[in-house]
Amino acid sequence: MLPDRQGIDDTFAPDPGGEAGIEIEYKETHLREGVTGTKRARSYDITITGNQVDNCPVGILARTVPADAEDQQARETDRPYSFTITGNTVSNAANAGIRIRSGADGVVATNTVRGVDTAIDIAEEFTTTIQQDLNVVRE
Q1: Global pTM value
Q2: What DSSP line would sit under 49-93, residue for residue?
Q3: In this structure, is residue 9 part of a structural domain?
Q4: What does the longest C-alpha to C-alpha distance in the chain come to?
Q5: Domain enclosing residue 67, as ranges
Q6: pLDDT tens digits for the chain (139 residues)?
Q7: How many independent structural domains does the chain possess?
């Protein structure tokens, strides 16, 4: 039996931090010793496609560099590999439809974003060469 959630419908709940419906993020956990600390340990060439996300603070969140309060410079200089966010629909995201926090050589294209004030939010200081084409923004 599930605990009483006071009427909250969380059939498809966002990540435990509560920010994003779908999130790609750099991770170094669960790596074999031979991979840890090498380029193979980095997130690379990740694709998010064909999803529908509704009613989350952020629909899709991407960051390919660890968010480390002790080392902000890494986010500015170490932007490993690429990612693609394409063919998704995000509706009614409170803060941003698609948010790119860090990364390089990414593509954000052919997505539909509805009912949001900020359709695509890219942290310019932590990203480079992010292509944005053919995205549709609707009310």
Answers
A1: 0.73
A2: ES-EEES-SEEEEEESS---TT-HHHHHH---S-EEEES-EEE--
A3: no
A4: 49
A5: 20-138
A6: 334 445 544 443 344 455 788 988 765 555 567 776 776 666 567 789 999 999 999 999 988 766 666 777 766 666 556 789 999 999 999 999 999 988 888 899 999 999 999 999 998 888 888 999 999 999 8
A7: 1
